[in-house]
What we know:
The complex is a heterodimer. Chain A is of the alpha+beta class. Chain A has 3 domains: 26-34 and 467-607, Aldehyde Oxidoreductase, domain 4 (2-Layer Sandwich), CATH 3.30.365.10; 37-147 and 216-306, Aldehyde oxidase/xanthine dehydrogenase, a/b hammerhead (Aldehyde Oxidoreductase, domain 3, Alpha-Beta Complex), CATH 3.90.1170.50; 428-463 and 613-766, Aldehyde Oxidoreductase, domain 4 (2-Layer Sandwich), CATH 3.30.365.10. Helices cover 27% and strands 26% of the residues of chain A. An 8-stranded mixed sheet of chain A has the order 10-9-11-21-20-19-12-33. Chain A has a 7-stranded mixed sheet with strand order 3-7-1-17-14-15-16, sandwiched between helices. A 4-stranded mixed sheet of chain A has the order 22-30-31-32, sandwiched between helices. In chain A, β9 and β10 (174-179) form a beta hairpin. Chain B is of the alpha+beta class. Chain B folds into 2 domains: 5-80, Ubiquitin-like (UB roll), CATH 3.10.20; 89-157, Orthogonal Bundle (DNA polymerase, domain 1). In chain B, α2 crosses α5. At the A-B interface, α1 and α18 of A face α2, α3, α4 and α5 of B.
Amino acid sequence: MAISQEDYLGITDYKVVGTRPVRHDGADKVTGRAIYGTDLNLPDMLHARVLRSPHAHARVKSIDTGKAEALEGVRAVVTGQDLALNAEEQLADLGEEVVRVKDMCAAVLAREKVLYQGYPVAAVAATNIHIAEEALDLIEVEYEVLPHVLDVREAMKDGAPLVHEDQRTNSMGERSENFSNIASHFRTELGDIEQGFSESDVVVEREFLTDMVHQGYIEPQNATVLWNADDVVTIWCSNQGAFGVRDQTARILGIPVSQIKVVPLEIGGGFGGKIKAYLEPIAALLSRKTGHPVKMIMTRTEVLQATGPTSGSWIRVKMGATNDGKLVAAESELVYEAGAFSGSPVGAGARNMLAPYVIPHVLVDGYDVVNNKPSSSAYRAPGTTNAAFAVETVVDELAEKLGVDPLEFRLNNSAKEGTRRADGPVNKRIGHEECVRAAVSSDHYQAALDGKYRGRGVASGFWGNGGGVSSAAASVNDDGTINLVEGSTDIGGTRTSVAMQMAEVLGISEQEIRPQVGDTDSIGYTGVTGGSRTTFATGWAAYKCAQDIKEQMMARAAILWEISEDDVEFDQGVFQSKSDPSKSITFKDLAAKLDSTGGPVMGRATAKPTGVGGAYAVAIVDVEVDPDTGKVDILRASIFQDAGKAIYPPYVEGQMQGGVAQAIGWALNEEYVYDEDGILRNSSLLDYRMPTCLDLPMIDAHIVEVPNPGHPYGVRGVGEVPIVPPTAAVANAIYDAIGLRLTELPMSPPRVLEAWWDKNGGNGSA
Amino acid sequence: MPGKVHVTTTINGESVEFLCEPRQTILEVLRDQLDLTGTKEGCSNGNCGACSILVDGNVIDSCLMMGVEAEGQEITTIEGVASADGLHPLQQKFLEHAALQCGICTPGFIVAAKALLDQESDPSEERIRLYLAGNLCRCTGYDKIVRAVQDAASEMAE
């Protein structure tokens, strides 16, 4: 099928794009030399720790820091009173989530109330970490414990304890009379839902529950800050966006961004959870108070208690299809827990959940609900995994009732170019059908799966991907190499995927480009590494930057040959005179003549690309269920994903495999376990159990390439969509294995056993 | 607080002396006193393996070992895995197989995998997965890590 031409160049003989070089920062990372946020040590540095709330919901009546301040080695203590009160009602777009400025400030250190166990209350800077730790015990906080609410549907009820006494529900622009934990409600409507169900021959309706889960990056949050005597604030941290940290810290401290420089150090994973600035503003206050650089690192318990998990949810899905296998109606209610502050990803879940399909009649209601749990943050395809778990389970059941193969059913109802999504947009060129076809014809799907208690499940998923703004600057060295500075935090090989796009333009090797991530004083504004935008948008900036260099170099060739610029052409790294082809020079040789043709050449570009291409993926999972223990083993897992064009395939595969692994953890083990007092009972990596390599098989990653018409090389974001389909694929595989539809995540051994016993009676021993 | 303890140990083949408080872990000593920051801290309670080091050839979570326990031991950290001749085959294979994304768990995995390959020349996939089950990676799904270790084992056997 032809690709509609917008920005896509239709190149068929790439030289660099699509190859598998070793990443530029590889040697540093396999030898331990790479400097991550926590690896930085500065002279005269102090170490700080945070005192956190032991209660799920309480009023802070008083804080006495006297004894802590008197401890030898303690240099400063700060509380919420050290923060300027900022009650702005405006919204701040953090890149992959939108928050209220007022909430962003209130979340840093408690002023009046603590809203979840682990809420920051005070912080201590001391000459070493152990003294800071000891001093926390000496801070006396008087709390008035308030009733709390943990369950998201309980929180919606009239009379539930209010997390925010002044919050009214924003229901499609209308403010409610009453105060409520429901922060907002929205509705998406297409066609006529009543008509849709009246036309349906088969209808399936189910309710689903998912728990909060954490991003689970291995490097805890950290920040080192120096508030210098000249009031310049330098922040060294490992966040998904240096500019995002600058913006948030400026807003929270009430100082201009020009006063802050953020130096991005290497980052140990993020998945959306390292966008918010949790520690940077606190370390800045402590540094201002002491005159020393202050370093802060969260413990793992703090990471789990007090940094963004993604929302748990209650979801109802009702879908109808005709006997000839066409989906005609879909109705859903999505209730997402935002935790302490509004801003759950329920909107994204609602937008994406039905995107793989063409459905004429749709009605979706979404609710963003606060409760006494940590404030949720973005997590890889925010909101969408929960919703896809629900929809893809129902789609599987419809296919089963109609006696149609589940992939064939998906193909028969697939969204394609020109069809309209329920939330409005008309699809551009998309690759869902191609992913389904790749899955159908795969070895995995064609292979027989024998054995008692074994089953196979499939599911589809969609993520819209992000665009945003990016900057790139590059200087040409006289040996023909290029130093490239870009602004995107590199979480998994994007220095290289960005440099490869520059190399492709200039006809040189990616190894002749030295990419680095600049600090906020050294490179133009660049949004967070999130939304699967970096290879797409920062890659685009590098592509434009390379065009800038190319044009300047063509002008230099014209000077060298004393011909008109119009007479110079460039192809595959060689400049040539059109009128006299004997005049020819390579990029490298011309780079050596820059001094004699006018001086250095630097390229620069910014990009705000609009041609974002959404991404689809399809997962196949084989499981074996142990009916004695309820344990589910993953026997085989495959993921088929439209990458548009895979610029750097090994790292595209890596994103796909990693997304599947996180989804399997979400499907089978991971959950936040709160007791009735609102205390998190599993705040360690022993008890919050993420998959180990013993829990997983090899994960077959099949890259499908349906070029995105909105990018010169056809790139689609790849990072997020692979987490979307597998939870439902696991659920559908469990159904295939033991005939039980599990509708709660995680499908942990107790839940599987309980369902098995309900069906088979007694203790279910088979 | 009792005074500091004098410890003599061997790290990456070099004799090293340091003073540490009894409450300091060897991880803290390595990272904050000896500037060996290649060993990472992910959880501080022995569940993630990012701080894996070798003590007399055995894989240890250095967050669970006190600094004073290093007395007389032979310690290898990630900084001691490569030699002046170049990268260890495991390091090379991690690069070739793209067996890292963010890289924070990578030192721990390489150190743990080295311990395995020092003991066994031809481990099966299952053996590798069992041996590395104490090291968490959140980025890769382990596929490429396991393949890199398998490939390094083959190369080292040649």
